[in-house]
Input
Amino acid sequence: MTHKVEDAAAALKAGGLILLPTETVYGLGADASNAEAVAAIFEAKGRPRFNPLISHVSDAGAAEAIAVFDPAARALAEAFWPGPLTIVAPVRDRDRVCDLARAGLDSVAVRVPGHAGARAVIAAFGGAVVAPSANRSGRPSPTTFADAVEETGFAVQAAVDGGDCAVGVESTVVSVLGDGVALLRPGAVTRAEIEALVGPVNERADEGHRSPGRLTTHYAPDAPVRIEADGAHEGEILLGFGAGVGDPRWSLSPTGDLREAAANLFRMLREADRERPVGIAVSPVPLVGLGEAINDRLRRAAGFVG
Ligand code: TXA
Ligand code: MG
Output
């Protein structure tokens, strides 16, 4: 199942769902202004309705038609778009992004993706495309076309094959709600990169800055995941990190490269799961740079919430 960009745009206009390739992970896309189409996303994913969606748009101008940006939001957009940063800001136009997509909040999440396929679909459609990761709720995000089809292909009218996702972990989510910048979800753009631009960021500082989707266990394969492992127990597959750790076939990065590990993470969790091991053990990954996002996803896959 693979379709052209025009088929995907037509499916969006007709209120259907699509598989949308992005540089981070595959998305399950719909017209952000169409409440029925958005409802179909929540249904296909089995996603709780209190968890709002990201609106994907073509450029910063289109983002500012939906959301109200202060100078910090503008600086972030300028520095990191197109790319894997999502900005949560006060909503400006409640019709372009329907209530259900925002989970009834007064804020809206916007992102300008860098992937050529995503950009072509958004341009051909001409509006905002809401797209959560294309996994069923709680499962690892799909980073290959085949994995996306396996997860939610049953629900879509069109699916665009954009190849393997180069980044492999989701966008960084920040909120800019008039009282500074808060980091809601570590992701592909690192904390250091953001702080170099806007100074120290708050940590989910208060109620308004909370990211509802962060409250549930997430990214989990069927096999139990054990993190910070210094080796495999009987029957486990060890996902190694660094030279000489475990079976090279199952290494997130034999050279200890965080970019490579991020790109491999969800695909390898899925591949390991298919072997039906007793469990999946994962070597320690340093908590620097992209390692913050990798460790965040691993902790949640292992069932540690928070
Ligand atoms: O890389 C990505 O961001 C991918 C690709 C497809 O773009 N999308 C993605 O979407 O990861 P999703 O739905 O799996 O994650 C969206 C996150 C959730 O944690 C959600 O709670 C948060 O963004 N979010 C969305 N709108 C929000 C809002 N108004 N306030 C706070 N958090 C919000
Ligand atoms: Mg997700």
Notes: The radius of gyration is 18 Å. Residues 258-274 form the longest helix (17 residues). The pocket of threonylcarbamoyladenylate (ligand 1) is lined by residues 22, 24-25, 27, 51-54, 84, 86, 88, 102, 105, 107-109, 111, 131-133, 170-171, 173, 184-185, 211-214 (CB under 6 Å).
